Amino acid sequence: MNIQDIKQDWISQFEKPLVITGPCSAESEKQVMDIAERLDKEYMQVFRAGIWKPRTKPGSFEGVGAIGLNWLKKVKDEYKIPIATEIANASHAKLALEFDVDYLWIGARSTVNPFTVQEIAEALRDTDKIVLVKNPVNPDLDLWIGALERLAAQGIKKLGVIHRGFSSHNKSKYRNNPQWQIALELKDRFPNIPLICDPSHITGRRDLIQEVAQQAFNLEYNGLMVETHCNPDEAWSDAKQQITPEELKKILVDITLRKKNDTSNDFSSKLNRYRGEIDELDNQLLGLLASRMEVAKKIGQLKKEHNVAIFQPDRWNVLKKLAMRNGERMGLSKEFLEYLLVAIHKESVDLQNQIMEDK
Ligand SMILES: C=C(O[C@@H]1C=C(C(=O)O)C=C[C@H]1O)C(=O)O
């Protein structure tokens, strides 16, 4: 089977967006049961707990292990809600199936490794459990899709993805850089695969969970995975990003869901008018860019005739500084200007290079 044939229907059973929640790590039977009891099951439909925890550094709490499966099972029996846990190898996968875990997710550190994903896929062959794939730690969409392909090839039909952000060397306010465009490209290519946002891991801090969750619904995600704990500050792992079940309920009540479209005349006539304006402006932009490249080619020709190097750092730095200043004054963001100017400069240098190479 191939990913295109995957059906979304396992997620359409939920009236509200799917919310998977529970502690980062199962710590004790009591901790697990206490959290499960405090979840408002109308808003939070699936209980999660990590029992095998891949940690960045040795010496951190690495999970209670298989004993935690008994606790999850007890949650399922007592509260009649589906349960979810992370699996990181074939033996985890087999144990989770034995304990009738309903949702199995493959973590970001496993998705990066095709051998791991393959052994998990084979251990889960033909399962009708729901398997969710977190994005790999590095921003590589093909690796993420590759994991889905490996699972689909083993006859696993109920698939979904979890966007938990990407590791980055650059400091930002987030623990893991969301790079929304990567998840959106996946959604664009595979609209049949449910897309779930994990604001706990994206933010790494509880005060930002609400805004990231809202952003996910602005982008029409299908659900959330959020870490909750009765005493978040005391949690044995990821304490800073956990919230109480009541805090999560408040976030979910306050959140605005967005629909795919609006069929009213008011909306569609205004939208069409604005889109017409955008089409016209895009045409002008492209025309201007093409003219700019023609001038760059003339400069390339001139440099060739005088044997001058293409890349001129002084000119490029002055030009960039000026354009950044003007652009920011016009309300364009610094990130966007950087990206745009670098792309324009690269094309200009490439075109001049072609001219130099032409005999
Ligand atoms: C066009 C030139 O060549 C290169 C491209 C530039 C550009 O596209 O603006 C600027 C500096 C050079 O690195 C130039 O030297 O002016």
TrEMBL record:
Its EC number is 5.4.99.5. InterPro entries: Aldolase_TIM, Chorismate_II_sf, Class-I_DAHP_synthase, CM_dom_sf, CM_II_prokaryot, DAHP1/KDSA. It holds the Pfam family DAHP_synth_1. SUPFAM superfamilies: Aldolase (SSF51569), Chorismate mutase II (SSF48600). The keyword Coiled coil applies. The keyword Coiled coil applies. Residues 264-291 form a coiled coil. One of its GO terms (molecular function) is chorismate mutase activity. Residues 265-356 form the Chorismate mutase domain. It is an enzyme of class 5 (isomerase). It comes from the Bacteria. One of its GO terms (biological process) is chorismate metabolic process. This is chorismate mutase. It comes from Apibacter adventoris.
